[in-house]
Amino acid sequence: MAQAARAVICREINKPVVVENITVDSPKRGEVMVKLSACGVCHSDLSATNGTIALPPPLILGHEGAGEVIEVGEGVTGLAVGDHVVASFIYMCGRCRFCSLGRPVLCVEQGKALSTLPDGTLRTKDAQGKPLNIFSGCGVMAEYATMHVDNLVKIDPKIPLDRAALVGCAVTTGVGAVFNTARVKPGASVAVFGCGGVGLNVIQGAAIAGAERIVAIDTLESKLEMAKKFGATDALLAKPGEDLTKPLKKITGGGADYAFECVGSGELAAAAYKALGRGGMAVVVGVAKASDATSVRTMTLPFEEKTLTGSYFGSCVPRVDFPRMLGLYMKGTLKLDELITKRYAIGEAPQAFADLEAAKNARGVIVF
Fold first, then answer.
1. 303-337: pLDDT as tens digits
2. What is the DSSP string of 168-228?
3. How far apart are CA 350 and CA 210, in angstroms?
4. What CA–CA distance (Å, rounded) separates 176 from 151?
5. Interatomic CA distance for residues 197 and 174, integer angstroms
6. What does 296-310 look like in DSSP terms, one character per residue?
7. The pTM is what?
8. Taking a C-beta distance cutoff of 8 angstroms, is the pair 335, 204 a contact?
């Protein structure tokens, strides 16, 4: 049956988010309805509100959510009422070449679920009965959401849902970039440009992987202090226009083995590449504007054998990596409790976004 709910909505680009009453329809074939417990307030949600990520308003935000299945549609066998789940913002068809190769983040079908469900329809309406788009097939910054089973991962019910939600984006994006994309080796040196929610998880991922030197770089002292709590061994305060190549090479003994760009800046991606030692790898994790570009000295490519690559959602396999990350949390290896700077009620969502934009939180979480 349809559920009345409140949701956080982007009505207009470059305008504050609003909280509205909506209706969420029952699941159809291959879908389930989830009662959300928590949703992280992610920079990608902010990017949707300012047009950096082009998704059409009116848009229910949220892709980093966790909750409990309360209704199951026809043909669903992998999930049942009462199961605890985490949303995955990549639609995993399981059949295309990339899914078959174990690289579902590159699924050729994921474009089907950018602002709707995979079949192109919606289960969400506003108070006037008009359809509401949903962020990446999820729209989980709401009390209820109906999603396709291929956008959900079942988890251990012992794990607190506000902590579990974080693996739906920030944790897996950051830690996965270390584990899956770069495959950081023990004893390596790592530079991390940007110490927001994703950057902090790159840092703790590098620490778990056994990196010897982890250099955190940010424009805010508060972020650098937080980075040290997640495993950074060194910190560099970045100033506008400053070239940090020399101090980075001094700290790392000639250049970092790995550098991660976690902001979404072509200029910083170039800086990360420049900061590498011979044979190093720079990984671009942040999502830049479509007009942004990165320039490297082409002559260095054959002589230094450095790599510049990207990492989308930590190059993860959600049904493998979500339980893996949560298992590390349950063992006390992965920090999730410490990531949550502040919890908000849904009515406080505009403040949560303002705090995100002001860089006040490692992670703000809306708890329903």
1. 999 999 999 999 999 999 999 999 999 999 999 99
2. GTHHHHHHHIIIIII-PPTT-EEEEE--SHHHHHHHHHHHHHT-SEEEEEES-HHHHHHHH
3. 39
4. 18
5. 8
6. --TTHHHHH--EEEE
7. 0.93
8. yes
